[in-house]
Specification:
Keywords: Membrane, Transmembrane, Transmembrane helix. By secondary structure, this protein is an alpha/beta fold. It is built from four helices and six strands. It has two domains: 51 residues; 121 residues, Glutaredoxin (3-Layer(aba) Sandwich).
């Protein structure tokens, strides 16, 4: 009877140690998997953020001084450079008329994306873009006659030309460049400037 009791206790200990070991191994393995998965997702997100939006143009912007004189920008619409000391409000602001480029460039310096359109853009596209801008802080939209495409999106040193609001690159550009890494003055105000 004592032998049987000792054998039962030995079996119980073996089962307990085996189960405990399996649980500890499972916790360690599961924790490692979650950490690796989070790291992989973080690296994938960083890689996506570093990749340019297909078709975007990048411009070197050597100067960003405040000036009160006209500026001859090398791109149209402007996507950086010297600019007026006053910025355009860019907190989802919709402008019915073309705005002064030098004021808009100051908004880009603050991390805004400036959406512009010509009369080539359909009314439906313009309305879609206006609604998207209204829902997105650090953006603004205005007509702009002197651009080559129906719609252009400009951030500091970056620009994307598209033919319609339904182009999926529009949202990718906004996601990447609204207060993006290219912003010279991240967190600067997009209110308190020139109103619509």
């Amino acid at each position: 009877m004592r032998r049987a009791e000792a054998a039962r206790e030995r079996r119980s200990r073996i089962i307990t140690w085996t189960l405990s070991g399996a649980i500890v191994a499972g916790v360690i393995g599961g924790s490692w998997w979650f950490v690796q998965d989070a790291q992989n997702k973080k690296e994938a997100k960083q890689a996506a953020a570093a990749a340019p939006v297909k078709g975007e143009k990048t411009f070197k912007v050597p100067e960003r001084n405040h000036v009160t004189t006209p500026v001859d920008y090398k791109m149209s619409p402007a996507a950086g450079g010297n600019h007026n000391p006053a910025w355009m409000n860019c907190n989802g602001d919709v402008y019915a008329k073309q705005v002064n480029e030098t004021n808009a460039v100051h908004s880009l310096e603050h991390g805004a994306v400036w959406v512009t359109y010509t009369d080539k853009a359909t009314e439906k596209d313009v309305n879609t873009l206006k609604e998207r801008v209204k829902a997105t802080p650090y953006t603004m939209i205005s007509p702009f006659a002197e651009q080559s495409s129906a719609v252009a999106l400009s951030a500091w040193g970056k620009q994307l030309n598209v033919d319609s609001a339904s182009d999926p690159r529009v949202q990718k550009f906004l996601d990447k460049y609204v207060q993006g890494r290219q912003t010279p003055e991240p967190g600067a105000a997009c209110t308190g400037g020139l109103p619509a």
